[in-house]
Amino acid sequence: MKRAEGYPDALFIDRHFIHEVTSPQAFDGLRKRGIKVFNTSRTTATADHNVPTKDQHLPIKEALSRHQVETLRKNCKDFGVELYDLGHPYQGIVHIIGPELGLTLPGMTIVCGDSHTSTHGAFGNIAFGIGTSEVEQVLATQCILQYKPKTMKIEINGKLGKGVVSKDIILYIISKISASGATGFFVEYAGDAIRGLSMEARMTICNMSIEMGARGGLIAPDETTFSYIKGRKFAPQGKAFDQAVENWKKLKTDDGAKYDQVLKYDAADIAPMITYGTNPGMGMKVTDRIPTAEELKDISEQTSFKKSLEYMGLEPGSELLGKKVDYVFIGSCTNARIEDLRLVAGMVKGKTKASDVEVWVIPGSKQVEAQAKSEGLDKIFEAAGFELRSPGCSACLGMNEDKVPPGKYCISTSNRNFEGRQGPKSRTFLASPLSAAAAAITGKVTDVREFV
Amino acid sequence: MAKEKFITLKSTAVPVAVENIDTDQIIPARFLKATTREGFGDNLFRDWRYDNNNQPIKDFVLNQSAYSGKILVGGKNFGCGSSREHAAWAIHDFGFKVVVSSFFADIFKNNALNNGLLPVVVSDDFLKKIFRAIDKDPKTEIEVDLQNQTIGFDGLKEKFEINLYKKTCMINGYDDIDYLLSLNKEVREFDLAHS
């Protein structure tokens, strides 16, 4: 929007998503200053982090969570912001509903007070997470101050092996470059293995860009993108859509453009992945063994590594295959779209879960939930002993009622395996929906290739 | 709205010599339910500070009386993970004015700067020396001079980088929003032209 001497660039924001956790203090700031929301038509709200995934029609039991959701209601009403509240057919995890409603379109600048805003980059967007002070800035001015980031291209070429899905691609990349390897960068994902992915699979990859430190990750839009958008609620319709597509087609990196860093990987080297530690960079092929402290690339990380494995209750040098799991969580902004649920249902159809495992399937939105039911996936889950609940962030972050108990192991399709992330002292193995489904059936960490 | 100004600080420091400290450790999600900015300091490093029965964990540095001060020193990749500004609020609310590390996650760094909490990036080697010095003598005082962009202790000194705009904001207590509001008319025109 504006570049002025001595100031960071003021970037105009096309789409601002808000939710109950990181917005209340921002609205308070507007009240103190006596100003309105700059453009309510560019702002969309939903309740997701704090919501229960059972009995959503009842008032939220926990007082503080209830208060935060009620505060969002009041703020949206007072300031005229559209809210997809509990019970609304469009409610869901903020990064799931934006794309499915056609609010996320190629070429936009998108922010949200949530680090997984990078998800929207799958449409060829500049999309990144911000803090609450910045949420206030965007509400007040529709702009944010930014410096130009460094650029990185990550190219994946070749054919993915059986049982390998987009979650494995991103876990593989992060395991290669570490949880801080892309800090300061925006990442473009390219290569024929990326081109071959559906929009939903691309979103899973862009979603986890932040887990290697990148604020944003994007993929140039193509026919896959355009056909995904076509007909969605808030997307341009008819002639306007055709015109938009013509513009969107221009949104690609110039031939010969220089990146600050380029990384290339062979799709054939990617296997079903799993994390063993307490940051997403601590991942490996499911058939590998956990490294020992001496094998670490960076010896300065040995102390943190030992602390991490102690927390996880795992031995350096041991295998994870066959390790008993207690919980299986299929959900989150990373993997709770209809394709994820279809993948899981396809694998478990006609099978049942292991008796000592609890399995939660949390659809990403009311629309995903409705679609799953219309396809009969709910019946498959029920027969398998999986519990299909209502939409929300659920056990991804240990904020609402869905928590993994202390010391228990959860194989999770979410994005973070930090200490206590899924509940105090909980232990998380991040993996793909396919790997999670396989573990649900066997009750232990399993190489999904045995099933496919 | 004016924020606290920051110019120089001389203080003892609290060392948390762990790498990749994510914002879930700084403030776990279950404590993000407040709708104001105050009081988060009580739950700073909650699950490292207290056990399941809410009893202080003796080994953790914030529970050891030997360590105190307005400077927090953390291992590299400090503040990674969730964008929650509550992490910066919690550190600031606890009484810290400076966080020192050899590497900060982007969003945390921004959030800190927006709340009068100065992130100081030092070299890996200097960070090691700080940890060693505090380990030897918890009363070691560290001096941070924002104007001259230096950090020093025991006769050692290192320059640190900070963006000039952010430095000006910190020194004067300015807020980004003041500048953005001054662009209001131009933004309005831009918005109309692009809708």
Question: Which structural category do the helix and sheet elements of chain B fall into?
Answer: alpha/beta
Mean pLDDT of chain B: 95
How many β-strand runs of chain B?
7
Coarse morphology of chain B: globular
| Intertermini distance of chain B | 30 Å
- pLDDT averaged over residues of chain A: 96
Q: What is the helix fraction of residues of chain B, given as a range?
A: 25-40%
Rg of chain B, please?
A: 18 Å
- Order of strands across the main sheet of chain A: 4-3-2-5-6
Beta-strand residue percentage of chain A: 15-25%
Elements of chain B, N to C (H/E): EHHEHEHEHEEEHHH
Distance between the termini of chain A: 50 Å
Query: Which structural class is indicated by helix and strand composition of chain A?
Result: alpha/beta
Unreliable stretches of chain A: none
Strand order of the largest sheet of chain B: 4-3-2-1-5-6-7
- Largest interface in this structure: A-B, 72 and 56 residues
The number of helices of chain B is: 8
The rough form of chain A would be described as globular
Which stretches of chain B are poorly predicted, pLDDT < 50 over at least 5 residues? Answer: none
Report on this model:
The complex is a heterodimer of chains A (452) and B (195). Chain A is an alpha/beta fold. Chain A contains 14 helices and 18 strands. Chain A has helices at residues 24-33, 63-79, 94-100, 132-141, 166-177, 192-195, 199-207, 223-229, 238-248, 302-312, 338-348, 366-374, 377-384, 433-442, and strands spanning 9-12, 15-18, 43-46, 82-84, 109-112, 126-129, 143-146, 150-157, 185-190, 216-218, 261-266, 273-275, 283-285, 327-330, 358-361, 387-388, 409-412, 427-430. In chain A, α5 links the parallel β8 (150-157) and β9 (185-190). In chain A, α1 packs across α4 (132-141), α11 packs across α13 and α11 (338-348) runs parallel beside α14 (433-442). Chain A is globular, with a radius of gyration of 21 Å. The termini of chain A are far apart. Chain B is of the alpha/beta class and 195 residues long. Helix content of chain B is 33%, strand content 17%. Chain B has eight helices and seven strands. Chain B has helices at 23-26, 46-49, 86-94, 106-113, 124-136, 164-172, 176-182, 184-193; strands at residues 8-16, 71-74, 98-101, 118-121, 141-145, 150-153, 156-159. In chain B, strands 4-3-2-1-5-6-7 form a seven-stranded mixed sheet. The radius of gyration of chain B is 18 Å and the shape is globular. The two termini of chain B are 30 Å apart. Chains A and B meet through α1, α2, α4, β7 and α10 of A and α4, α7 and α8 of B.
